[in-house]
Amino acid sequence: MFLENENNKIIGIIYSKDLKVKHVFKVNKLQSNISFIYKYSRKINKGYNPENSYKRNEVFQIKKLDSLKYEFIVYKDASRKKKIIDATVNLEIGDFDYINFGIDHIITRDAEKQLRGMLDPNKKFMVKSVEYKYNSNVSKFNILEGIQKVDLTIELPKILKEPEHWSDFKD
């Protein structure tokens, strides 16, 4: 589960890769107790099943800046003139293998796999932070504050709810 914090609201997100569905939960913390309240589920690229898992003619590139720093760029098409996403991914060697950009775009799943293939297979890497821009005007900075193994069971409702807002943080 990926936890995000914005304006003192915490949400939990689980991606079901085989179904290409994102499940969003409101996270409540009271002292040492944490509860997850199901908000909704959203299909990623709903109704679109191309040979490539992402849409249209988008292409991406990963460039090594140094041993633990990489640039990830998504272009509108193969001409590579218009950037859709421009990100800097900072890694650290850790106890877990956790390559997740935290960017809600289906093309990043393939990019994460490609980046993992560029790294030393004998070491475990974690994404420490990602700074990115969407369409050169919306910026975001994600920092991994911690990662740990937990025994977690979450049941989804039989009928999944659709979101009413574009933002995961709106109620």
Layout of strands and helices, then pairs:
Elements: E1 2-6, E2 9-16, E3 21-30, E4 33-43, E5 59-66, E6 69-75, E7 83-93, H1 107-118, E8 125-134, E9 138-143
Antiparallel strand pairs: 1-2, 2-3, 3-4, 5-6, 6-7, 7-8, 8-9
Architecture overview:
The chain is mainly β and 171 residues long. It has 2 domains: 42 residues, no CATH class; 85 residues, no CATH class. Helix content is 7%, strand content 44%. The chain is built from 1 helix and 9 strands. The strands form 2 sheets. Strands 5-6-7-8-9 form a 5-stranded antiparallel β-sheet, with helices on one face. It starts with a strand and ends in a 28-residue tail after the last strand.
